[in-house]
Amino acid sequence: MGELTRQEMQSMFDQLRVRIQDIVSSRQDVQRCVDNSRDRVISYMHDYLQQNQQQFIRQLDERTRIYKGQVASLESRIQSLESEVRASHQMLAAMAQKQQSVVIPGVQEAVQNQQNYRFAQTS
Predict the structure, then answer these.
(1) Nearest 5°: phi and psi at 60?
(2) Residue-by-residue pLDDT tens, the chain, 123 positions
(3) How many CA atoms lie within 13 A of 73 on its CB side?
(4) Rounded Cα gap, residues 24 and 17, in angstroms
């Protein structure tokens, strides 16, 4: 092989540069690919988060409905117990009134104190 002239060397470098440019993507191509990938990932994440948010809202609605039912049931039971306590108190007061004439005064005072104590606890 003989010596290469400057022109031949330049020609080889130009061909090599053209082949490298054909193999390697341009900066704009890479930027466009990165932008498209970023937009696709953001879109997927948005869809995923929106789907999870909707599922979470449905779960919260269901729990709220259940809790409202439980609170309504408790309120109803409390009102029922309050009515029973009032009726029991009235009945005890009526019975105490009837026995007032029969009971010995010291025992009557003890019973009265005990009734007041029980009533104070339930109030």
Answers:
(1) -65, -40
(2) 568 788 888 898 899 888 887 777 777 888 898 999 999 999 999 999 999 999 999 999 999 999 999 999 999 999 999 999 999 999 998 888 887 666 566 666 777 788 787 777 766
(3) 6
(4) 10
